[in-house]
Amino acid sequence: MSLPIDTGTSVTLHFSLALEDGYLVDSNFEGNAATFTVGDGNLLPGFEAVLMGLVDGDQREFTIGPENAFGQHNPENVQAVERGNFTEDELEVGAMYSFQNGDGELPGVIVELGDKEIMVDFNHPLAGQNILFKVNIISVSPQQVH
Hints:
It is a single chain. The protein contains 1 helix and 9 strands, in the order E-E-E-H-E-E-E-E-E-E. By secondary structure, the protein is mainly beta. The protein folds into 2 domains: 10-70 and 127-141, Chitinase A, domain 3; 75-121, Beta Barrel (Thrombin, subunit H), CATH 2.40.10. The strands form 2 sheets. Strands 1, 2, 3, 4 and 9 form a 5-stranded antiparallel beta sheet that branches. A 4-stranded antiparallel beta sheet has the order 5-8-7-6, with no helix packed on it.
């Protein structure tokens, strides 16, 4: 009898994340399978939720909406940064730039160049996107007791 995926089970799987236009964000189908414990924080809750009840050998594809994936695009996360914070050779629309904040590094993407200010989008690059989540469940085992 196959053990269904549930909170606390250890799951080994191949997966891919893609955008609706087919752009592949991440995949391990060509490499080693990933193993994680459901509920350990390694997978976003919206991705874990669709796996519940699947068993060894299941292959599925899910569309995960932004609210359950990387969040909606928040216009308040697009902010003006003084041009003096950049060196001129870094200034390019679409360039990723890391800023130091109190919690470490905060990545942002340059979206507009102004004379005095640069507009930087601090939303997750996948915010507002539907994510196509494809899985092939290799194995499901009981929670490991340490």
